[in-house]
């Protein structure tokens, strides 16, 4: 029997506690029907017996206090809700227990923005991590020693797992089920819960808002120019002339401030505008392509798919019910 400890932190997302408990309990039932022994012993663990969440609207009863759990095989850290710094502070007393369990051989998995609490333990320093696409910039600022794998659904390194945004954690849970049982059981679970197994990217759902939480005015000026003139063909030379900074220095500062090269930033702004057009208009691919400053169909398709994970036509058909295939 494998001991799974689902942490019940303050400021938790209730579904991110209930869903892994539900899934692993269901897998036990699948195994029993197949004539096998149940594998997972699931317990809800916390600093208190009764943990209030969602501003006190709900209370989750833990089965074990952290001080009484001396050994476990897997620790699951659920998604947090609200301000991440506040959530981490509220749960700082749980950090030593997480570290201790990892050092004793347990694996640790964070779901969505549970990565913030996991990163606060220091266990992710020098390692890769996934989290919700909408929180990646904040995560990088708070934990610069951790490498965020942009767009990734699942990241695994040295017995530590993390997942992308929101419902992406189901894919991590299925990954763990397959690891601890077998592929057949994971597929059965994916069908039972109607989850698209083996989905590898959250880029289709990502919104690019740029990274402006920095103090480099030259870079900010260049960003604003790109965002206002994305319909045009923008060159690095145009931006250098605008901000009066040497090319090498400008490119280095831009990457440092935005976590994107200049070319990546221009591409992502253009693709974000194209996404909005595909979602809300009846324009075909060529019209949208020209609107955002591309004239090469092959180049536009390539950049769009690289950033979103879908071709322009696939994206339009997925998100625009008015779309007419062309």
How does this model look, in words?
The chain is 45% helix and 13% strand. With 326 residues, the protein is an alpha/beta fold. The chain has 2 domains: 204 residues, Rossmann fold (3-Layer(aba) Sandwich), CATH 3.40.50; 103 residues, Arc Repressor Mutant, subunit A (Orthogonal Bundle).
CA radius of gyration: 23 Å
Structural class based on helices, strands and sheet pairing: alpha/beta
Overall body shape: globular
Strand content: 5-15%
Tell me the CATH architecture of the largest domain.
Answer: 3-Layer(aba) Sandwich
Element layout with pairings:
Layout: E1 2-7, H1 15-33, E2 40-46, E3 50-53, E4 58-61, E5 64-65, E6 74-77, H2 84-90, H3 95-103, E7 107-110, H4 115-120, E8 128-129, H5 136-142, E9 147-148, E10 154-157, E11 160-163, H6 169-180, H7 183-192, H8 217-228, H9 236-243, H10 247-258, H11 262-280, H12 285-291, H13 297-308, H14 312-319
Helix pairs in contact: 1-6, 1-7, 6-7, 8-9
Descriptive tags:
326 residues, alpha/beta, Arc Repressor Mutant, subunit A, 2 domains, 7-stranded mixed β-sheet
Summarize the structure.
The chain is an alpha/beta fold and 326 residues long. It is built from 14 helices and eleven strands.
């Amino acid at each position: 029997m494998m001991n799974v400890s689902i942490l019940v932190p303050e400021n938790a997302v209730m579904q991110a506690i209930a869903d892994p408990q539900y899934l692993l309990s269901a897998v036990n039932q699948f195994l029993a029907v197949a004539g096998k022994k149940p594998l997972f012993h699931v317990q809800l663990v916390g600093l208190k017996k009764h943990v209030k969440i969602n501003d006190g609207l709900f209370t989750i009863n833990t089965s074990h206090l952290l001080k009484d759990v001396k050994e476990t095989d897997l620790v699951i850290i659920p998604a947090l809700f609200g301000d991440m710094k506040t959530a981490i502070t509220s749960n700082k007393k749980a950090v030593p227990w997480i570290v201790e369990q990892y050092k004793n051989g347990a694996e640790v998995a964070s779901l969505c923005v549970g990565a913030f609490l996991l990163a606060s333990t220091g266990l992710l320093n020098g390692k890769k991590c996934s989290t919700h696409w909408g929180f990646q910039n904040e995560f990088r600022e708070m934990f610069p020693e951790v490498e965020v794998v942009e767009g990734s659904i699942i990241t695994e390194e040295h017995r530590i797992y993390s997942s992308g945004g929101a419902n992406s954690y189901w894919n991590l849970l299925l990954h763990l089920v397959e690891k601890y049982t077998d592929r057949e059981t994971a597929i059965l679970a994916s069908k039972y819960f109607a989850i698209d197994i083996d989905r590898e990217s959250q880029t289709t759902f990502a919104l690019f808002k740029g990274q402006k939480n920095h103090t480099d005015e030259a870079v900010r000026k260049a960003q604003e120019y790109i965002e206002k003139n994305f319909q045009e063909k923008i060159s690095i030379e145009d931006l250098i002339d605008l901000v009066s900074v040497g090319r090498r220095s400008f490119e280095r500062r831009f990457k440092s401030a935005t976590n994107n090269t200049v070319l990546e930033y221009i591409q992502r702004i253009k693709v974000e505008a194209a996404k909005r057009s595909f979602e809300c208009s009846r324009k075909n691919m060529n019209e949208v392509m020209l609107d955002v400053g591309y004239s090469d169909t092959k180049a536009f398709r390539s950049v769009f798919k690289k950033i979103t994970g879908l071709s322009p036509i696939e994206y339009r058909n997925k998100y625009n019910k008015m779309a007419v295939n062309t």
